[in-house]
TrEMBL record:
Belongs to the allantoicase family. Keywords: Hydrolase, Purine metabolism. Signal peptide: none annotated. This is Probable allantoicase. Its EC number is 3.5.3.4. Pathway: Nitrogen metabolism; (S)-allantoin degradation; (S)-ureidoglycolate from allantoate (aminidohydrolase route): step 1/1. NCBIfam families: allantoicase. Residues 22-181, 201-329 form the Allantoicase domain.
Length: 411
């Protein structure tokens, strides 16, 4: 039985199924008692007793009708009969753990459940998702009522959607899908963007204090609607300061910094600085210690010194910050590393399509895809160079193939 007495380590990662990142519940076979959209509501589920609507007690979750058998002689559902809901992840990524929360469902929770994942690029319809290839993330397992079930996942694959299955029927309050964002490098080509943003793969990796709210709020999408949607520390009683460290989407050059204290009025830090770190492990200033004003977006241009892979926001002495933005651009090495990770993690069909679109033949794309995972960009290029020549002039194949892998990986 899953231990639910303490949070699993994966719950400290980004919730890929957060509506603030763009997640949505795109389909469900039934939602007669309670709407499927409740599954990804950010707040914990609530219960208000004796609150009845036209279809019964109003539940803060997703709840299906009671299943019945084929007829009077077979009144019970079969072992295969089950309900399901499909969630589009806000950002695609590697799933490290899932929480299936049956909070407040006591006499109406499912007997068992499972979770599957699929990778379908673009904006597929429910019909296209139904026909997709689904991979088991959490095998069918027993569920309990009023319990947050934590399931670690150990699959090295990128997913865009998850499907929650429940047998034979019942209700689930919340579904959380924690993991690591894996952006499509083609979406970032030639752009300046927020290198720290969750949607691009930036993630908070450590913080001195998270008493009032999570450091993951710092690099969420959009602006904070209330103070609780930022990062805030307790009041410091010594002469030190607070900080958050973030891993960036990839190695890049920071061109501008935004420190947003919106909604923080009497608890805004007095000053802030931003440091960067590269492969050497040495921290250096991106933004020197700068005076902050309450409830203000501070937007500051900076001069790139050298590429960074990590950043650290320091606030003096304590307080709250709504958002941190680090606008910049990937280096060639950063773009190549991002692309290689993406290529290694997408399903074979998706990798073959991307390689074919870059310029390889279908047969060549299938051969390169089958050779994954690649340890580094050089091994990917070597695999392309080793492909058998086609009926083209001498050297033309190698030139074409190298151009194709360069377009995809930048090597």
């Amino acid at each position: 039985m899953t231990d639910t007495t303490s949070p699993a380590a994966f719950t400290e990662l980004v919730n890929l199924a957060a509506r603030t990142l763009g997640a949505g519940v795109v389909a469900a076979n039934d939602e007669l008692f309670a709407e499927k959209e409740n599954l990804i509501v950010a707040a914990p589920a609530e219960f208000r007793p004796h609150t009845f609507g036209h279809k019964g007690q109003i539940m803060d979750g997703w709840e299906t009708r009671r299943r019945r058998g084929a007829g009077a002689d077979e009144p019970h559902p079969t072992d295969a009969d089950h309900d399901w809901a499909i969630v589009r992840l806000g950002v695609a990524g590697v799933v490290r753990g899932v929480v299936v929360d049956t909070a407040h469902f006591t006499g109406n929770y499912p007997e068992t459940g499972s979770v599957e994942g699929a990778s379908v690029p673009g904006a597929p319809s429910p019909e296209e998702l139904a026909a997709a290839e689904w991979t088991e993330l959490v095998p069918r397992t027993t569920l309990r009522g009023d319990t947050a079930h934590e399931f670690p996942v150990e699959l090295e694959q990128r997913f865009t959607h998850v499907r929650l299955n429940i047998w034979p029927d019942g209700g689930v309050a919340r579904l959380r899908v924690y993991g690591e964002v894996v952006a499509d490098p083609r979406d970032l080509d030639g752009l300046t963007f927020d290198l720290a943003a969750q949607e691009s793969g930036g993630v908070a990796t450590g913080a001195s204090d998270r008493y009032f709210s999570s450091p993951h709020n710092l690099n969420s999408l959009g602006r904070a609607a209330v103070m609780g949607e930022g990062w805030e520390t307790r009041r410091r009683r010594n002469k030190d300061h607070d900080w958050v460290e973030l891993k960036l989407a990839g190695e890049g050059e920071v061109l501008a910094v935004e420190v947003d204290t919106t909604h923080f009025v009497a608890n805004c830090p007095g000053w802030a600085s931003v440091s960067g770190r590269d492969g050497s492990g040495e921290w250096f200033d991106l933004l020197p210690r700068t005076r902050l004003q309450p409830d203000t977006r501070h937007r500051l241009r900076v001069t790139p010194q050298r590429p960074v892979t990590e950043a650290r926001l320091n606030v003096f002495p304590d307080g709250g910050v709504a958002r941190l933005r680090l606008t910049g651009r990937l280096t060639e090495a950063g773009r190549a590393a991002l692309a290689l990770r993406w290529l290694n993690l997408v399903p074979a069909a998706e990798a073959e399509q991307a390689l074919a679109e870059a310029g390889l033949s279908a047969a060549e794309a299938a051969s390169v895809s089958a050779a994954r995972p690649f340890a580094d960009a050089a091994s990917a290029r070597a695999t392309v160079d080793a492909l058998q020549p086609q009926d083209t002039p001498d050297g033309a194949d190698t030139t074409r193939r190298r151009a194709a892998i360069w377009r995809l990986l930048g090597v």
